[in-house]
Amino acid sequence: MFKDLFIWWEEDILLKGALEGVKDMIEITKEMFDFATASFFGEVEVKHDIYEMDKSVNVLEVEIRKKVYEHLSMNPKQDITSSLVLTTIVIDIERIGDYSKNIYELSLIYTPESGTRCYEEAKRLSQHVNAFLSQIGKAVENGDVESARKLMEEKNWICKKCEGIIKEIVIDEAIKVRAAVVYSLMFRYLKRASAHIGNIASSIVNPFYRIGFKPE
User: Fold this and answer.
1) What CA–CA distance (Å, rounded) separates 166 from 172?
2) Tens digit of pLDDT for each residue in 87-117?
3) In this structure, is residue 215 part of a structural domain?
4) How many helical (H) and strand (E) elements, i.e. helices and strands, does the chain have?
5) Is 120 domain-assigned?
6) CATH number, domain at 203?
7) Per residue in 123-161, pLDDT tens?
8) Which residues does 3 contact at the CB level (< 8 Å), separation at least 6?
């Protein structure tokens, strides 16, 4: 279904503009996530204002909604599904930006100790989510159903892994309280960011009414 929608997006000037905005949102959000995780692990090379980046994402979300609204105003009986898919995608992208901010704010209150299991697992899973953001951007741009389907499967693995580690932290009496709180939040944010990437991928794979769910 997505490939049919993608053709509409490329041919209609307003929907094409909205699609370009989606691509820009994903790119900015990826930069936010890169910066946030680099800050958390003490590996920042280039300083960014993540709050200004977040404002840019919000502006793009509003602009996309406006383009979709204008498109429907001129074509009230056409492309309703395309419009619904676009407005759904931007919500998930914006939420990934919010979780990136949350990760950055963890870096402001806690300096993790390298070499610990939590540190290494958080870093490894962060790298996976980072790769997912690159892949979902390409999948949306190309209408790539197979890549999106693979991302949905990998998202499930990330979410289960994060949940498992959080449970281990809760029952680990040796871990310090501050570390337990921060890492529990970190893995929760990674899980939610991954889940939103999965939602975007599902919009490529599934019909509109099953966005966010497993393929039938």
Assistant:
1) 10
2) 899 999 999 999 999 999 999 999 998 989 9
3) no
4) 7, 0
5) yes
6) 1.20.58.220
7) 999 999 999 999 998 888 888 889 999 999 999 999 999
8) 143, 145
Closest CA to 118 of 186, 177, 173: 186
Place of tokens 């993540």: 50
Residue closest to 136 by CA, chosen among 201, 196, 92 = 201
Nearest CA among 1, 2, 28, 13 for reference residue 140: 2
Mean pLDDT of the 180-198 span: 97
**Integer Cα distance of 12 and 49 in angstroms:** 34
What six digits make up the tokens of 145? Answer: 């159903």
Question: Range of 130's domain?
Answer: 2-210
User: Is 16 exposed, middle or buried (CB count within 10 Å of its CB: 0-12, 13-18, 19+)?
Assistant: middle
Q: What is the tally of structural domains in the chain?
A: 1
Radius of gyration, alpha carbons of the chain? 18
Residue 6: inside a domain, yes or no?
yes
Q: How large is the angle between the packed helices 2-11 and 145-171, nearest 10 degrees?
A: 110
- List pLDDT tens digits, range 46-93: 789 999 999 999 999 999 999 888 878 877 666 677 778 888 999 999
Burial of 212 per CB tally in 10 Å (0-12, 13-18, 19+): middle
